[in-house]
Amino acid sequence: MRQRIFWNIFLASVIAAVLLGGAVLVTQYDVFEERIFSELESECGYVSAGILQAADETSYLDSLSSKNRITLINPDGSVAYDSEEDETTLDNHATRPEVAQALVAGTGQSSRYSETQLTRNFYYAVRISDGRVLRVSTAQKSLLGMVGVMLPTILLGILAILIISVFFSRYAAKRIVAPINALDLEKPLGNAAYDELAPLLTNMEHQRREIAARIGALCEKQREFTAVTEHMREGLILLDSSERMLAINSSAAHTFGADASAVIGAHVLMLNRSYALQQALERAKTGGAGESTLIKGAKTYQVLASTVEDKGISAGTVILILDVSDKVAAEQMRREFSANVSHELKTPLTSILGYAEIMRDGVARIEDTKRFAAKIYDEASQLMSLIDDIIRLSQLDEKSSLPEKTTVDLKAIVEEVCQRLQPQAQRAEVTLTCECESAQILGIPKILEEIAQNLIDNAIKYNRKGGSVHLSLKKQGEQVILRVADTGIGISDEDRPRVFERFYRADRSRSKQIGGTGLGLSIVKHSAETHGASVHLESQLGVGTTITVTFPPEE
To answer: 487 near 463, Cβ under 8 Å?
Structure first.
């Protein structure tokens, strides 16, 4: 320890002396630089005035007996004149710092170091009234060069400092080392070295305990914060006052396709440079509601930004990113559904009102009354079917209103539906066959019945005379497969992706003839989703359609 104290004191004294000497040298060199720039500025002033007055500026410049280098530069950076070099061989000077400054601000200055000559070149430039730039430069001994000149004197000074420091350090180390060597830093309060050290040792012990407690608390808070944020579905980003990321959870990193650990410390716009994110940040800065909508691919996100203030000063920003794609899609679907419902309800009601008005006013002949009443009855039946389907869809959307699922014998349900629809198939001159295996699933009997009902009903309605409908129910591993295949009119490639949309009809003229509501397949899809099942459609125009519902294993 004695040696360490000795060397510390020795090095400290040497360094202090060297730094003091260096500071003096640097200070003087700075004064020297200021004087050089002042001289160059003065020379630039009278040379630029002479250029503007001279009839032949080249002759004028050549006649100057200046010890400095004079360069005249065009506004585009090309060199028009140089007192030391052939201007045609020189590079464009537009990017030189002093020239660039002069072109913008009127004047500019800079200095550059030459490692080969140990000199520093000083440049001062001024923009004259015709837009050109006059630059005057000089080369002077650099700080390193000045040191080289004064090297003998400096070496003698360093030697004297070393000798004095050796004796001083040895003496101080002897006086200090003994009591200090006896200190027990593990138990600061157990030391009895210097009385002067008692407050220090007490503070050391207090701080040691306080630091240990704070570190423990911070680690615990960090663990809690990480546990909470990493399990959030929402994206969370914490920024400092410079909008650099302090923390980002996995959800936000996934949203922007970034590596959470790699982007810490980077500016938040490195994640996404969209206007939406910038807008949210700007609004948060002004104290407003930092809210905007970010569209990224097929996803829609709501970006919420809020400024965190400490004693009235912005300390950072919290950004919350919410995936609202489902909400936006649901809202769009609701608007479309409302519009479609209004249209579909008005159609039969308009017809009913028309026929009823004719009958009310006595315009209809007696022999037409029965026919009009039949039309009213058909339209009212269609209206009731439409209302029933709309109610069913609403119930499927509001899953909370559905009954509890139970273990269901799907074979019994399907066979009952097939038997019920046999007369309909016979009237349509369509052959309906069912091939069912025993299958138990977890479901809601009424909804499962509607799936089979809609699939078979559609297969019969959109078939041709002499066609066939084949229903099969089979187990495939732990899955249950319900398949309905027909030899009907089929669905075109254009219509196939949309047949499960609400109120969409592939063949509108035929749908009107047979009384379709356009909701059957939509009910099938929603009913299947209620049971965790998937629906797959295969169809060829003029050949037929096959719809397969795959139920997951019973949990």
So the answer is: yes
Where would I find the H helices in 361-444? 366-397, 410-427
What's the burial of 155, exposed, middle or buried (CB within 10 Å: 0-12/13-18/19+)? exposed
Q: Domain 403-551 classified CATH 3.30.565.10?
A: yes
Q: Which helix (H) or strand (E) is 14 found in, with range? A: helix 2-53
Could you tell me the sign of the dihedral formed by the alpha carbons of 151, 156, 157, 162, in that order?
positive
400-403, long-range: CB < 8 A, 24+ apart:
402/444, 402/447, 402/530, 403/444, 403/446
Give the pLDDT mean for 495-502: 73
Question: 511 pLDDT band (50/70/90 cuts)?
Answer: very low
> Residue 385 has which token pair?
């079917």
pLDDT digits (tens, 9 = 90+) for 58-117: 888 888 888 889 999 999 999 989 988 888 888 998 899 999 999 999 999 998 877 666
CA gap 428, 153 in Å, rounded? 120
Query: What is the domain partition of the chain in residue ranges?
Result: 2-149, 232-320, 328-399, 403-551
Q: What are phi and psi of 253, to 5 degrees?
A: -60, -40
Residue 195 CA, distance from chain mean position:
60
CATH superfamily of 232-320: PAS domain (3.30.450.20)
DSSP class of residue 552? Answer: P
Structure-block tokens of residue 201: 């040792």
**In terms of pLDDT, which residue wins out, 261 or 116?**
261
Same fold: 232-320 with 328-399: no
> What is d(CA 152, CA 357) in angstroms, rounded to the nearest whole number?
123
**Which residue, chain included where needed, has tokens 């004191």?**
9
Cβ distance 358 to 372 under 8 Å?
Answer: yes
Question: Which whole-number Å values give the CA distances from 16 to 11, 124, 158, 473, in the listed order?
Answer: 8, 36, 11, 94
β partners of residue 410 = none
What is the Cα 239 distance to its own chain's centre? 13
Q: State how far the Cα of 461 lies from the Cα of 451, in Å rounded to an integer.
A: 16
- Cβ(205)–Cβ(188) below 8 Å: yes
The mean pLDDT value of the chain amounts to 78
And the tokens for 7?
Answer: 């060397």
For residues 138 and 68, is the Cβ–Cβ distance under 8 A? yes
User: How many whole angstroms separate alpha carbon 14 and alpha carbon 163?
Assistant: 10
Q: 213-232 pLDDT, tens per residue? A: 887 777 777 777 666 677 77
- pLDDT band with cut points at 50, 70 and 90 for residue 509: very low
Q: Which residue has the tokens 């990493």?
A: 230
